[in-house]
């Protein structure tokens, strides 16, 4: 499933969130995926634990974070969520981010193919990223994807 197709079910997009910590970013990005039955409550804990151990390896220079963990860390079905932040924030010492796309893949292949390929396609569109950052509603973001 493409990121656009999944996110068109708009409950997986959260716009201009205000957060107080990088851990809260991870928890908020995972919340609709847990509620939708796509990942277990252990999944964001695994992402936070991996981040503390290995650093924010999923942060890109463009101010985008793609937090994820291995399939066995609680992925039930392939999924995506998107969070835009009201103000950029560093994740465990990383460059500040303001667009977060969390994903979970049920196996190694879907983890790579469906998740990263869809997100990388989005990263390559600077104009779209700028517009996503300025968006104030879920509908605006859906139109841009």
From TrEMBL:
Ranges of residues in domain PTS EIIA type-2: 6-145
Annotated GO biological process: phosphoenolpyruvate-dependent sugar phosphotransferase system
Keyword tags: Cytoplasm, Kinase, Phosphoprotein, Phosphotransferase system, Plasmid, Transferase, Transport
CDD domains linked to this entry: PTS_IIA_fru
Keyword hit for Transferase: yes
InterPro entries xref list: Ascorbate-PTS_EIIA_comp, PTrfase/Anion_transptr, PTS_EIIA_type-2_dom
One Pfam short name: PTS_EIIA_2
Alphabetical list of SUPFAM superfamilies matching this protein: Phoshotransferase/anion transport protein (SSF55804)
Subcellular locations according to the entry: Cytoplasm
Primary site of residence: cytoplasm
GO annotation, cellular component aspect: cytoplasm
Gene Ontology molecular function terms on file: kinase activity
Keyword Metal-binding in record: no
Function noted in UniProt: The phosphoenolpyruvate-dependent sugar phosphotransferase system (sugar PTS), a major carbohydrate active transport system, catalyzes the phosphorylation of incoming sugar substrates concomitantly with their translocation across the cell membrane. The enzyme II UlaABC PTS system is involved in ascorbate transport.
Entry protein name: Ascorbate-specific PTS system EIIA component
Organism of provenance: Sodalis praecaptivus
């Amino acid at each position: 499933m493409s990121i656009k197709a999944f996110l068109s079910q708009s409950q997986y997009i959260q716009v201009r969130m205000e957060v107080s910590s990088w851990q809260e970013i991870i928890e908020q990005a995972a919340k609709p995926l847990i509620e939708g039955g796509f990942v277990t409550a252990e999944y964001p804990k695994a992402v936070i634990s991996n981040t503390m151990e290995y650093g924010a390896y999923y942060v890109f220079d463009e101010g985008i974070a793609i937090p994820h963990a291995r399939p066995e860390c609680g992925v039930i079905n392939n999924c995506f969520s998107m969070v835009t932040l009201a103000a950029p924030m560093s994740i465990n010492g990383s460059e500040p981010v303001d667009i977060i796309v969390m994903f979970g893949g049920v196996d190694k292949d879907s983890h790579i193919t469906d998740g990263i390929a869809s997100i990388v396609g989005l990263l390559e569109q600077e104009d779209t990223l700028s517009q996503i950052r300025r968006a104030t509603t879920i509908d605006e973001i859906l139109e841009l994807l």
